[in-house]
Task: inverse folding
């Protein structure tokens, strides 16, 4: 057996709990900011909220079938269940990818110097952001609404041949040479957004390098150590994109191997589900790390703790 069922169940349930708690906490934080701390509110927060929802739905719909399967429950999904779970999972996974790409594009425009030839985009960004999100919804619905017709409940018990094979579902053309079309459209869609992420991230790295060189040239310690909201957001998005790209390629390598391997490994899809949900799981914690309200709360708590410690020493 590829991996012990008990160990796999623990990993899957842990991933589900951490991911749901992290994304729920971040979503509640943004709701709190919008209603009770409007002076902390920024336009980019709407993108973070959208990403948080997409990540949470992705985690739930990819992990729950594998968790149920790890406990040996048979026939958990029928034809309609397979189509619904795969469609929802793929749509929101695609939205997670496209939203991360839009975030990196939004931030690269935000930090672009005013004397740059791209500075005119700053005035269009708020309007275009909602248009890009709407387009990403339409594109994902169009692609995965069609792709879901290629999935049925599992009928092949031999587990041999090309194609998508899950504990409960499989591709309709499993074992046939033309089943590769199931993967082709997905990779073309994903690679487009990954390319945008990599280009915008490289540009942001160049801008950060120029900022550091400028601070060193002016020999201003305050300027070099200062973390503006734009720089904090840039660091967050660079971390998000870096984690996404690394985990994306690892997930895709396992997916391709599982798709084209003639003999299927029973638990490979469940292991791949853990990798596929790593980015949605760690994403909220990377965002919260540079959130201004979280930093303000942390510094206030540290100051309160230090005050209590000093009073305790004084009383003793």
Result:
């Amino acid at each position: 057996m590829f991996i012990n069922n008990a160990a796999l169940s623990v990993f899957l349930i842990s991933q589900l709990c951490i991911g749901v708690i992290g994304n729920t906490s971040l979503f509640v934080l943004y709701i709190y900011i919008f209603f009770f701390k409007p002076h902390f509110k920024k336009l980019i927060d709407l993108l973070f909220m959208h990403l948080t929802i997409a990540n949470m739905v992705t985690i739930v719909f990819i992990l729950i079938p594998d968790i149920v399967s790890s406990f040996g429950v048979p026939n958990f999904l029928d034809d309609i269940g397979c189509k619904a779970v795969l469609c929802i999972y793929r749509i929101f996974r695609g939205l997670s990818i496209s939203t991360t790409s839009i975030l990196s594009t939004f931030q690269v425009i935000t930090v672009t110097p005013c004397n740059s030839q791209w500075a005119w985009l700053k005035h269009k960004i708020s309007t275009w952001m909602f248009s890009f999100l709407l387009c990403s919804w339409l594109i994902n619905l169009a692609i995965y609404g069609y792709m879901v017709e290629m999935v049925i409940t599992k009928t092949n018990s031999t587990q041999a041949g090309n194609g998508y094979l899950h504990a409960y579902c499989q591709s309709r053309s499993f074992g046939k040479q033309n089943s590769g079309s199931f993967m082709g459209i997905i990779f073309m869609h994903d690679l487009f957004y990954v390319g945008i992420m990599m280009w915008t991230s490289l540009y942001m790295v160049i801008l950060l390098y120029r900022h550091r060189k400028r601070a060193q040239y002016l020999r201003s310690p305050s300027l070099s150590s200062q973390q503006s909201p734009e720089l904090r957001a840039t660091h967050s998005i660079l971390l998000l994109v870096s984690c996404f790209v690394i985990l994306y390629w690892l997930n895709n390598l396992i997916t391709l191997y599982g798709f084209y391997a003639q003999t299927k490994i029973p638990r490979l899809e469940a292991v791949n589900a853990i990798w596929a949900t790593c980015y949605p799981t760690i994403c909220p914690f990377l965002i919260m790390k540079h959130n201004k309200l979280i930093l303000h709360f942390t510094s206030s708590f540290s100051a309160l703790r230090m005050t209590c410690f000093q009073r305790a020493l004084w009383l003793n």
